[in-house]
Amino acid sequence: MVPMLPQSAKTQEPPRCLNESATPVRLEIVQIANFADPYSSWRRGGNENGNGMIRRHPPKRTPVAPSMAREPQETVDETDNRPMRVLG
Length: 88
Fold this sequence. Notes:
The chain contains four helices and no strands. The two termini are 29 Å apart. It has 88 residues and is an all-alpha fold. It is 33% helix and 0% strand.
């Protein structure tokens, strides 16, 4: 459940003159999580991009052998160490 903002945070107004701006104002910020609907892959672009990078490594229908035990960790390390664009 998402906590609601306290009434004091809802009624904050910007200062109207210099004297009011000198007084400290305490604001509480609440981050609301946005969850995508199940099976809505177009809303989870980062997740789908990561899945695509992982799918490139072992092709489909590759037989799994006991000697491939280290391969999943190598795939994860390569995916995690890949340079990515920073938005912001």
